[in-house]
Amino acid sequence: MGEYFVGITDKGKRRDHNEDTFIACEFFNKEFVVACVIDGVGGYSGGEVAAAITRCVILDHLKNLPADIIATLHTAVSAANVTIREERKKGNKQEQMACVLTCAVTDIQNNKLYYAHVGDTRLYLLRDHSLVKLSKDHSVVGFLEELGRLSEEDAMSHPRRNEITKALGFEADIHKINDFIETGQSPFLPGDTILVCSDGLTDMISTATISAILLQKISLTEKAKELVAAANEAGGNDNITAVLVQNNKQPTPTVALKPFERKSTTAKNPIPVSNNSSEEKPDLPATRKGSLIILLILFSLGILAVLLFQNKSAVPANNVVLKSVPVWPENDTLEQFMRMVKDSTKNYSFNRGASLLNVQKPVFISKDSFYIKGNGVTIISDSNYKGAAFIISNTAKHIVLDSIVFKNFDVAVAVQKSNVEFKNIQFINCRVPVLYQLSFTGTMISGLLKDSIFIPVSKFKKL
Length: 463
What we know:
Layout: E1 5-10, E2 20-27, E3 32-40, H1 47-61, H2 69-88, E4 99-107, E5 112-118, E6 122-127, E7 130-133, H3 140-147, H4 152-156, E8 182-187, E9 193-197, H5 199-202, H6 207-214, H7 220-233, E10 240-246, H8 286-313, H9 332-342, E11 347-349, E12 355-359, E13 363-365, E14 369-381, E15 388-392, E16 398-407, E17 411-415, E18 420-423, E19 426-428, E20 432-436
């Protein structure tokens, strides 16, 4: 398969020593690749010790990878926290040592990605020239940036940029604290690349610069070096660490349909014929030939009529041809969810920390009642998609959306009446989080309408 993972770390230009460390290695006969970046918390004595302890504990626990990977990662991070706190009790001027980390496990054979995260290190996924941040920053500034309250440029230069809200060593029994350890999974498709990095990289260069480097036609090692060099050129204020993993499997080739071989005649007979010469078969009787010709003419006229009818029905009265609606990307979770939306199911629960990427089509919910338990699922819009994530029909009576993160949507949720209950919903970089839409049965209206648009229900019936 060639080079498909690499890790690199650099102390930068302003630090005397490097408190970062990383893991980039294969496990279980190359079935899995682990990409982990651990950053000792600056300002606390012993940050590099905490990072080294965490690295050892993580490596030890990943020996159990064939089990539940998310549970294994969660247990490993919790164990690292316990070990750090035990070491802090010994004194040695390291009573406040701590670290942050992001650890990803890629299962390339099955096109899956799993991760655990605490702090302000980051996990990015590059797919089809689009770079998406999968992890959330556990810091005040990072939270404001994800809400859209701060631009990336302002966040990078904010004086409180490095103040984190979560780290290993800060709290005891973090396995008992709900969502202290962020976990998740995502498809990891052929051609995808993930980047795990420390804030020494993302505080110095923008996602646009990172994306431009990752899209270059160079090796992974060269890309990693380019990232570090760019961060140093921008100032190199902190230690810089980057781990890259690429799913370099070849996409499944599309099988081309073999065209029918047609007999070349002046009549351009549309019936497929074999490769055998016509002289090898006896001629059909004249009566059978005539009947066959009549049947062919009727068949051709029928096909022509169907095509004309379809073409006519596909063109509206104003002669503007409607564009076809793009489909959801293929994903086991999505396929299951869409089935549940359409059948008689009354509730659906996502796996904790799941992510739905590159959404290109709305989910249209019209059933009487439906409870969607997101468990922190992150639904991310495709960069070219300008529609809504969810559209709730006015025929629905009671829809509950619980613990869902909508990210990068022009409109996150469109509703047509007060039939939706929101619980723990987060909107990140969404121009309109909730749009209340009005539909009218007639064409004559009067009065003032504000912050709404006219959307007939019929527009969504075909979705």
